[in-house]
């Protein structure tokens, strides 16, 4: 096994590269039954009757389940309990599941699912979030009283005064699209009843603890009767939270009722039809700028289409609100954010979590403002960006960590030769067919959940009598290499080789509920817990051997698999120390808990220390646009992010590239299209994620400023890398063509040879 | 009909010949390295090699490979677990995240390097363009393939050992 720090070390790489990793669908069970969900063609309808008799009589069918069969709660939700295990009163979007067929084979289940009929009264559907807010609009949830899911606001300073002081105002409207996570592994769960009555859940999910909560509530049993077992998963990107939990709950319900293991493996078209998406946004944005190039005021209205259920819309839109001015100091801010119910596909968590939409807006508006002033976007950003000690738009002083905004910007400029390339941009005029442009964007981002949730994580280190170590952490391996990073941190802190550590298959029955592995919180929260657990273990080990080392317990050093006195004269090996502890029944079993430092929030004014620390990132891209076809070709991209500390550098680079690739899809290719509320591109042939040939060579510039609030020094990475390449591409397209991009994905048709002046909106 | 999978001969009935190849490999032989991520031939997660050519097997029947040489990801490493140099390069270069695309990606790259052991990065990009990866942005996958190419020059490294 490779040691920590050796290139590419991952605890799961060998199994994955040999095809031996067992993902959920690869698991085998005796007497396994298969389930298939039943959809109906409605978009918004009142359900009168779900007719299952014919399906129940079909070959191989064991049972057809509907809402009536749910012994516990049919409703769930992390914020509002409006989501259904099976649609009961109404169909609220085209992905609602009304029933589930369980059969001897998957094919038979799928075949029978077509025989379930739904009798319903069709209701008018509301598919536009602005229309949903108008009086008299059809209500998605009558009991909620309106289609407004939530609001957030920021009231800072005096915007009227700010706009009066402005030399000019940039005012524009922007739209972003619905985007699918497109994890390569579709949703899947296998649930098996154990002899003692406990239901074991294996599934592809990011949130084993909330899955357990939902499964237990659905079955009407205590938490102890459901065990969610960590299973390798084929990608999540924020998308395997609510929907993944429902899939597990449905399979668990069938397993419980039938007393047999049941697998519910999603087809790609079901996955895209049913699973929640990144929110489409409409943003009206107005920025006032003074003659000195400083922003005097920002006013914005953000409308997020949350689709048919609440999911985490209030949290997603909260981040958009807190970060609505990008990484710039603005004294006067007036922001209104609205999360809205519609009959569209549900929107929820996706990598970025409300920031990609806002960055697409802000990072273009600053360039428009710069152009009005006759300075570069870089210069405009320098005049306005947050620095050490700056106060954010929510009143938080950035002094608890290194504010690295300028550092990442400088790194990208230097690495790419950006300013020299900027001078070569075509601005709509070129001799050949290819127009050339470079573009840049930057952001800051609050780390982890912030004031949106209670933020803590636990880790368990359990050293065995022979000195080998079992490690378990309350965060989840989504594919990003979390287990490896946790193992490396434990090994470093304990001064042992990482080969000594086994990451134990996680289970909700052994580690305390540590929340969900989202919000780029895995490394900082999990790593914090591991580091604290390791320190506690060291404290106990030092106490056990300080007599032998003839020094104070606090002075014992842990190095090279041994415990040493300060001078290094006397040593006790790690194994001996553990043996000594077992001999005296001082068991080396420790739990470490990292609690995020306090955050604050006033919902009324939008003031508070929203996040306990922030990360800083900057990305640039170089491209050409073909005048005749409008085709965009990316030539190169570079990114600099302050990650606090790169625990596993190859994996860190992987997060950079993966995030940038996904942002490329957001900018240029991806859009969940629908007609009358029905998705029309539900598979990977029509929903087009970036291919290798769509992407340029990418460069990753890792900036490390250890964070004092993070016990292991690391901060966050997964989402920052995904939130700024789209506006960088939009800016580059502008610099190439002279055309601003107000909606995503960017669609360019043929460009006329000479662009009319009025087209060159700045 | 006769199949040859990872160097081993196998006789199956005509009715098995009608089965979906991906189901047969995954369920009957427990060769679960090939993944089903789209079921319509659009993503490459199910790729195996048939006579050293990549084939997406979610849209194939067992009979389609009768009489041909089939290599799945399980046939790439040595029986003792020693990785093929191409697999080792994937590990070393951080080309693996969730790993769901990895088996297909390794096999496509293997087929490509057998034919073109002196590839440019652009050629590598084109060679893997039918295989989707949502995690890595392909950058480190391309690094890995580029690094492994040296092992295919002169005497190319075959898949190391036949086994089911
Ligand atoms: S599963 Fe065969 S190509 Fe996607
Ligand atoms: S590593 Fe996850 S899809 Fe490629």
CATH topology (fold) name of the largest domain in chain B = Ubiquitin-like (UB roll)
Number of domains of chain A: 3
Major beta sheet summary of chain B: 5 strands, mixed
Distance between the termini of chain B: 18 Å
Largest β sheet strand count, sense and barrel closure of chain A: 7 strands, mixed
* Quaternary organisation of the protein chains: heterodimer
SS-derived structural category of chain A = alpha+beta
Calculate Rg of chain B over CA atoms: 15 Å
- What's the CATH architecture name of the largest domain in chain B? Roll
Strand order of the largest sheet of chain A: 3-7-1-14-11-12-13
The amount of beta strand of chain B, in percent, is: 5-15%
Which of globular, elongated, flat, extended, rod-shaped describes the shape of chain A? globular
CATH class of the largest domain in chain B: Alpha Beta
Assigned CATH class of the largest domain in chain A: Alpha Beta
- Global morphology of chain B: globular
Radius of gyration of chain A: 27 Å
**CATH H-level superfamily of the largest domain in chain A:** Aldehyde oxidase/xanthine dehydrogenase, molybdopterin binding domain
Search tags:
heterodimer, A: 762 residues, alpha+beta, Aldehyde Oxidoreductase, domain 3, Aldehyde Oxidoreductase, domain 4, globular, disordered N terminus, B: 164 residues, Ubiquitin-like (UB roll), DNA polymerase, domain 1
Structural summary, described in words:
The complex is a heterodimer of chains A (762) and B (164). Chain A is α+β, with helices and mostly antiparallel strands and 762 residues long. Helices cover 27% and strands 23% of the residues of chain A. Chain A has 18 helices and 30 strands. In chain A, a hairpin with a 5-residue loop joins β19 and β20. Chain B is of the alpha+beta class. Helices cover 31% and strands 12% of the residues of chain B. In chain B, α3 runs antiparallel to α6. Chain B is globular, with a radius of gyration of 15 Å. The model of chain B has no long low-confidence stretch (mean pLDDT 94). The chains are: A alpha+beta (762), B alpha+beta (164). Bound molecules: FE2/S2 (inorganic) cluster (FES) (2 copies). One FE2/S2 (inorganic) cluster sits at the interface of chains B and A. One FE2/S2 (inorganic) cluster (FES) sits at the interface of chains B and A.
């Amino acid at each position: 096994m490779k040691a920590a720090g050796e290139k590419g070390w991952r605890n799961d790489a060998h199994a994955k590269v040999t095809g031996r990793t067992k993902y959920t669908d690869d698991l085998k069970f005796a007497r396994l039954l298969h389930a298939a969900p039943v959809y109906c063609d409605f978009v918004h309808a009142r359900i009168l009757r779900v007719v299952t008799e014919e399906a129940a009589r079909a070959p191989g069918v064991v049972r057809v389940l509907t809402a009536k069969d749910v012994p516990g709660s049919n409703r769930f939700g992390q914020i509002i309990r409006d989501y259904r295990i099976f649609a009961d009163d109404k169909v609220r979007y085209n992905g609602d599941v009304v029933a589930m067929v369980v059969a001897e084979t998957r094919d038979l289940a799928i075949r029978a699912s077509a025989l379930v009929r739904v009798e319903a009264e069709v209701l008018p559907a509301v598919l536009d979030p602005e229309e949903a807010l108008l009086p008299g609009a059809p209500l998605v949830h009558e009991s909620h009283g309106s289609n407004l899911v939530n609001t957030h606001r920021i009231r800072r300073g005096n915007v009227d005064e700010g706009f009066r002081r402005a030399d000019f105002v940039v005012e524009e409207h922007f739209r972003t699209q619905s985007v699918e996570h497109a994890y390569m592994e579709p949703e899947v769960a296998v649930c098996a009843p154990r002899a003692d009555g406990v239901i074991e859940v294996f599934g592809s999910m990011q949130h084993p603890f909330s899955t357990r909560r939902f499964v237990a509530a659905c079955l009407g049993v205590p938490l102890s009767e459901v065990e969610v077992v960590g299973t390798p998963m084929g990608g999540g990107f924020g998308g395997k939270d609510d929907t993944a939990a429902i899939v597990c709950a449905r399979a668990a319900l069938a397993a419980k009722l039938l007393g047999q293991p049941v697998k519910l493996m999603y087809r790609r078209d079901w996955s895209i039809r049913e699973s929640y998406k990144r929110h489409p946004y409409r943003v009206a944005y107005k920025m006032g700028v003074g003659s000195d190039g400083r922003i005097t005021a920002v006013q914005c209205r953000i409308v997020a289409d949350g689709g048919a259920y609440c999911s985490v819309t209030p949290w997603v839109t909260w981040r958009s609100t807190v970060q609505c001015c990008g990484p710039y100091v603005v004294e006067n801010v007036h922001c209104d954010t609205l999360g809205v119910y519609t009959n569209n596909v549900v929107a929820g968590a996706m990598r970025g979590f409300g920031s990609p939409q806002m960055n697409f807006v802000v990072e273009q508006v600053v360039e428009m403002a710069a152009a009005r002033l006759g300075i570069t976007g870089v210069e405009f950003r320098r005049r306005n960006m947050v620095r050490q000690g700056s106060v954010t738009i929510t009143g938080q002083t950035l002094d608890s960590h290194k504010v690295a905004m300028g550092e990442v910007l400088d790194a990208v400029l230097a690495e790419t030769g950006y300013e020299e390339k900027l001078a070569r941009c075509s601005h709509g005029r070129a001799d050949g067919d290819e127009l050339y442009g470079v573009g840049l964007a930057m952001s800051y981002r609050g780390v982890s959940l912030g004031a949106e949730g209670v933020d803590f994580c636990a880790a368990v280190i359990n050293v065995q009598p022979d000195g080998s170590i079992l490690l378990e952490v309350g965060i989840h391996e989504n594919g990003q290499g979390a287990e490896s990073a946790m193992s490396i941190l434990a090994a470093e802190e304990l001064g042992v080789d990482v080969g000594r550590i086994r990451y134990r298959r996680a289970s909700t029955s052994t580690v305390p509920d540590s929340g969900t592995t989202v919000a780029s919180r895995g490394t900082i929260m999990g790593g914090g817990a591991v580091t604290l657990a390791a320190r506690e273990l060291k404290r106990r080990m030092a106490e056990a051997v300080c007599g032998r080392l003839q020094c104070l317990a606090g002075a014992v050093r842990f190095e090279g698999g041994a415990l040493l006195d300060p001078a290094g004269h006397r040593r006790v090996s790690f194994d001996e120390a553990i043996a000594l502890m077992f001999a005296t029944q001082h068991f080396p079993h420790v739990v470490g808990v990292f609690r995020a430092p306090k955050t604050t929030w006033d919902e009324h004014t939008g003031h508070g220390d929203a996040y306990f620390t922030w990360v800083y990132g900057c990305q640039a891209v170089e491209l050409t646009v073909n005048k005749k076809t409008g085709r965009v070709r990316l030539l190169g991209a570079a990114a600099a992010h302050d990650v606090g500390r790169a625990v596993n550098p190859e994996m860190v680079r992987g997060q950079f590239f993966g995030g940038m690739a996904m942002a490329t899809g957001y900018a240029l290719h991806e859009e969940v299209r629908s007609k009358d509320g029905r998705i029309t591109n539900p598979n990977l042939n029509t929903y087009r994620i970036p291919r290798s040939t769509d992407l340029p060579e990418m460069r990753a510039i890792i900036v490390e400023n250890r964070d004092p609030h993070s016990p292991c020094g690391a901060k966050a990475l997964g989402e920052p890398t995904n939130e700024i390449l789209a506006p960088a591409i939009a800016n580059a397209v502008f610099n190439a063509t002279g055309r601003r991009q107000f909606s995503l994905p960017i669609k360019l048709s043929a460009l006329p040879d000479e662009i009319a002046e009025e087209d060159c909106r700045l | 009909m006769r199949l040859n999978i990872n160097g081993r001969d196998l006789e199956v009935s005509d009715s098995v010949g009608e089965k979906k190849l991906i189901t047969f490999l995954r369920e009957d032989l427990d060769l679960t390295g090939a993944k089903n991520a789209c079921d319509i031939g659009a993503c490459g997660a199910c790729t195996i090699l048939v006579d050293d050519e990549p084939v997406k097997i979610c849209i194939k029947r067992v009979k389609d490979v009768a009489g041909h040489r089939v290599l799945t990801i399980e046939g790439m490493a040595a029986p003792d677990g020693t990785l093929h140099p191409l697999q080792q390069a994937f590990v070393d270069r951080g080309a693996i995240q969730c790993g769901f695309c990895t088996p297909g990606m390794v096999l496509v790259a293997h087929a490509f390097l057998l034919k073109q052991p002196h590839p440019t990065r652009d050629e590598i990009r084109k060679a893997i363009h039918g295989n989707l990866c949502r995690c890595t942005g392909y950058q480190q996958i391309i690094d890995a393939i580029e690094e492994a190419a040296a092992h295919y020059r002169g005497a190319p490294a075959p898949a190391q050992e036949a086994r089911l």
